[in-house]
Amino acid sequence: MKIQVIHGPNLNLLGRRETETYGTLTLREIEALLAHLACELGCRVEFFQSNHEGELVDCIHSCQDRVDGILINPAAFTHYSYALRDAITAVDLPVVEVHMSNIYQREAFRHQSVTAPVCCGQVSGFGESSYLLGLRGLVGIIRDGKQQGFECRKGKGSERA
Ligand code: DQA
């Protein structure tokens, strides 16, 4: 099983950026934790980070027929990128969204995620553990083919508008 991990804009600055909100681990250190957990879970992870919306869209497209699922922190694009939302909808893969901070405790503009409704689930507020919890959840969804008794019906209907 292969998982694509995608990090959105400014996450390349983790470890230096707003450490009171995001902690002091660098992106590389978080990726090392993910790679370690992936080994434990018996899957492989590939990493991609970009500050550019189109590159993130291209990476999501490239996942079809290449990986089994996507773990994504869309960062600020979470709150307004219909292009990322449409890309997630377009691929027939389970996608889990993660945020290090609790976006619902922060500024009002962060309370909305336009991408979460087309993902199987969202983890928010556990620092680097959000990524680890998200990976566990995603691997579970892929293994079971189901999410908590409900099919993961990503992108299948207008009820997600
Ligand atoms: C973030 C939350 C976003 O609101 C913010 O723009 C980020 C990081 C998080 O991981 O907590 O860049 O996605």
* Sequence of strands across the biggest β-sheet: 2-1-3-4-5
CATH superfamily: Dehydroquinase, class II
* Mean pLDDT score: 93
| CATH class value | Alpha Beta
Structural class: alpha/beta
Reported by name, the CATH topology is: Rossmann fold
Question: How many strands?
Answer: 5
Beta-strand residue fraction: 15-25%
Question: What is the CATH-assigned architecture?
Answer: 3-Layer(aba) Sandwich
Question: What hetero molecules are in the model?
Answer: 1,3,4-trihydroxy-5-OXO-cyclohexanecarboxylic acid
Q: In total, how many domains does the architecture comprise? A: 1
Helix/strand order = EHHEHEHEEH
Which helices and strands, and how do they pair?
Elements: E1 2-7, H1 19-22, H2 27-41, E2 44-49, H3 53-62, E3 69-73, H4 82-90, E4 95-99, E5 121-124, H5 129-144
Parallel strand pairs: 1-2, 1-3, 3-4, 4-5
A few lines on this structure:
The chain has 161 residues and is an alpha/beta fold.
Structure description:
There is one protein chain. The protein is of the alpha/beta class and 161 residues long. It has a single domain, classed as Dehydroquinase, class II (Rossmann fold). Strands 2-1-3-4-5 form a five-stranded parallel β-sheet, sandwiched between helices. The protein is globular. The longest helix is centred in the last third of the chain and has 16 residues, at 129-144. Helix content is 34%, strand content 16%. Helix 4 (82-90) links the parallel strand 3 (69-73) and strand 4 (95-99). Residues 156-161 have low confidence and may be disordered. The structure holds 1,3,4-trihydroxy-5-OXO-cyclohexanecarboxylic acid. 1,3,4-trihydroxy-5-OXO-cyclohexanecarboxylic acid binds at residues 10, 73, 75-76, 78, 99-101, 103, 110.
